[in-house]
Amino acid sequence: MTKDKEITCIVCPIGCKILVDLDGKQIKNLEGNKCKQGIDYAINEALDPRRMLTSSILVIGGNWPLVSIKSSQPVPRDKVFQVLKEIKKIKVKAPIKLGQIILTNIANTNINIIATKSIEKL
Amino acid sequence: MSNQDVDVAVIGGGPAGLAAAVSAKEHGAKHVVILDRNSWLGGILPQCIHDGFGVEETGESMTGPEYAEKYISMAQQQNIGVMNETMVLHFDKKREIIAVNKKGIHKIKAKTIVLAMGCREKTRWSAMIPGDRPSGIFTAGVAQSFINLYNIMPGKNVVILGSGDVGLIIARRLKFEGANVLGVIEILPYASGLPRNVVQCLDDYDIPLFLNHTVTSIEGRERLERIAIAQVNKNMNPISGTERQIKCDTLLLSLGLIPENELLKNADIKIDEITGGPVVDQNLETTLGGVFACGNCLQVYDTVDMLSIDAKRAGKNAAKYNKSKKLKTSIKLIAGKGVRYVVPQKIDVAGTVHITLRSEKPQEKSILWIIENDKIILRKKLRFVNPANMVKLVIEIPPEVVKSGHKLEVIIDDKR
């Protein structure tokens, strides 16, 4: 079965609307891109969209109530809320160092959750 | 009252102030001090927990807090003095700063000053939204600080007015924290933020974007209960009959930013009415000798990367400042047809000049001209100019042009 997907390219500020004609996992046709870079983007976006995930985690005994975090790799888009759910379950003890790994292999993605801020112990 | 003498005093410890201070130190200033109102350094960066900072400047994509810590550790390594929770009340033509903090009043005599006070968000009153005055109406940046720094949710059912990047990013953030984001309202026919953020913050989570719409009324006794939105015509006036109500408890405003320059009034520094920042020369020196400006109090930047690059120049020039070298003559650089504004506004030394400007309207292909009377100084093809994307240029100004005293006009023409 073929299916059309409209993808807004984010490679540059022009934001081309690229129409991807998908047949299962095969790209049949692709149109609307003004440059070549748009092709790679549209293919990835159609077959395996991923997003860098940033959020925050509760801190115990720190100079701030939260520590900001990021995913070590872009997370598959359909797993974003699963990852967020895992993150909300935990609290981290201060002190925390920027770059510290807070959680490993979150939601079985092989992706780690990393602190993006240093928190001092109060 | 405490007294101290410094080489460079930097007012504001956000990204611009940090970059300027680090650069001043690197270029020979011995005693550099940063004065900031907050208890932390980095300004707004710690609450901007999303990534994408630093790509242009370093090639590496960082989150806001990571970008801030990079500069904070550089400042620490270089022994830059920091006075936190300190409010600058006044400075004068002799570059004498009066500041106050819990310890009392401080008088700081500075050889040079770098202004890096940043900007403020426009409020409900900038957009003249009529109606009640309940709680539940916040600027987007304030809501962002509540959520990301203080662990406070601003509300449950949220509407966002303004589709700039801050508005889009806060929409996703609210969704992540379990709020119901009912929509983003934009008066223009297109989103003001980057396509990347429209896709990744709205489309990904099915948050509706209402283009050509605005908020026409606010209702609620204690807390916000509902707003009305309406479609607008070409002149951005609401079209009667298109009004509809949205039940919500929170309205976030992402209406744009205004440079923060209250302090300049006492010092008699000239302000550019379009940028909202001080008039500067090619060294980013204001109309008061020895006082330099950078960051969002000079002009509101698109990215922290471009802001830091310019702020470093301000810091360097402040460190190397020597008033005897200054020439008497200066030429004006003015925004002509198709150009909203240009920085710097004047040039008094020939040589390499870094220029930033914004176009008046979006154009796919155009030509930028810099003209002295009838003489062409520069002709450059531009692809896809947009008022939302700052244009950056580096040009060589020959000595005879500066000596001529003629103004230079910057034009963006749609004819190719």
Number of strands of chain A: 10
Mean pLDDT of chain A: 92
Structural class of chain A: alpha+beta
CATH class (first level) name of the largest domain in chain B:
Alpha Beta
Which regions of chain B have little confidence, pLDDT < 50, spanning 5+ residues?
none
How do the SSEs of chain A run, as a string of H and E? Answer: EEEHEEEEHEEE
Number of domains of chain B: 3
What is the multimeric organization of the chains shown?
heterodimer
Largest sheet of chain B: 7 strands, mixed
Biggest protein-protein contact in the assembly: A-B, 26 and 29 residues
Count, helices of chain A: 2
CATH class of the largest domain in chain A: Alpha Beta
Q: What report would you give on this structure?
A:
The complex is a heterodimer of chains A (122) and B (416). By secondary structure, chain A is α+β, with helices and mostly antiparallel strands. Chain A has 2 domains: 2-48, N-terminal domain of TfIIb; 54-115, CPE0013-like fold. Chain A contains 2 helices and 10 strands; from the N terminus they run βββαββββαβββ. In chain A, strand 1 (2-8) and strand 2 (17-23) form a beta hairpin. The longest helix of chain A has 11 residues, at 37-47. Chain A starts with a strand and ends in a 7-residue tail after the last strand. Chain B is of the alpha/beta class and 416 residues long. Chain B has 3 domains: 1-120 and 258-325, 3-Layer(bba) Sandwich (FAD/NAD(P)-binding domain), CATH 3.50.50; 123-255, FAD/NAD(P)-binding domain (3-Layer(bba) Sandwich); 327-416, Immunoglobulin-like (Sandwich), CATH 2.60.40. Chain B is 21% helix and 35% strand. Chain B is built from 10 helices and 27 strands. In chain B, the strands form 7 sheets. In chain B, strands 1, 2, 5, 6, 7, 8 and 19 form a 7-stranded mixed beta sheet that branches. In chain B, strands 10-17-11-12-13 form a 5-stranded parallel beta sheet. In chain B, strand 1 (2-11), helix 1 and strand 2 form a beta-alpha-beta unit. In chain B, helix 6 packs parallel to helix 7 (195-202). The termini of chain B are far apart. The mean pLDDT of chain B is 94. Chains A and B meet through strand 5 and strand 6 of A and strand 4, helix 3 and helix 7 of B.
